[in-house]
TrEMBL record, chains A, B:
Residues 41-97 form the Cupin type-2 domain. The lineage of its organism: Bacteria, Bacillati, Actinomycetota, Actinomycetes, Kitasatosporales. SUPFAM superfamilies: RmlC-like cupins. InterPro entries: Cupin_2, PKS_Associated_Protein, RmlC-like_jellyroll, RmlC_Cupin_sf. This is Cupin domain-containing protein. It holds the Pfam family Cupin_2. It comes from Streptomyces adustus.
Length: 123, 123
């Protein structure tokens, strides 16, 4: 059997959902997941002790607050939050991002709480 | 000491080099590397036996030839070539891509030959 070989169009995938702060998986890369999310407002401070986390802004504007200063990302800009570095994503306007990190990493890291949500597949 | 926390602007990084078929590292993510490359023409058929490889087109148009059909990527589209799948990138016009795979993966995979080149840091 030949598997279908389909590209992933980021804009088309983003058009498939409206929920904020919910990671949608769009591809696997070995044991990593490529995910999309839409953000607006302020998340919570949290840390991923065991992994770096890549943020790439597709549209909007994302501020990643860090304890030693903010990183502001415009479309076409990326930042890798190093493992163990506490951070808090904030978006004043609705912002679409691509996320990359190992499978199973939770959005709230060590902080937990009611905003914790596993990534969901997006077909 | 506080490390500087700098975002990576893909367009600015792409403006820093002209060489074709040379992977430029722009970020680390755990033991993975985020790289940029400019492509034009046809590469060689090769396989990465031990890893998937992510291609995201930033500008231009990339055809990834596979033995069971082509995948064509426009800007904002990505594709993960699964490990063990032979592929040959082709770009009719100059095309800029973001690549993601484990550190140390060579561009020509199992094929080797004169086009083999390790990724270079881009500061």
């Amino acid at each position: 059997m030949t598997e279908p070989r389909a590209s992933v169009n980021l804009a088309h995938k983003l058009a498939q959902f409206d929920e904020l702060w919910t990671q949608k998986k769009i591809a696997d890369l070995n044991d990593y997941e490529v995910k999309l999310a839409k953000l607006k407002g302020e998340f919570i401070w949290h840390t991923h002790e065991d992994t770096d986390e890549l943020f790439l802004v597709i549209s909007g504007r994302l501020t990643i607050r860090l304890r030693d200063g903010d990183v502001v990302l415009e479309p076409g800009e990326l930042f890798v939050v190093p493992r163990g570095v506490e951070h808090c994503p904030v978006a004043d306007e609705e912002t679409a991002i691509l996320l990359l990190e190992p499978a199973g990493v939770l959005n709230t890291g060590d902080a937990g709480g009611p905003l914790t949500k596993a990534a969901e597949p997006l077909d």
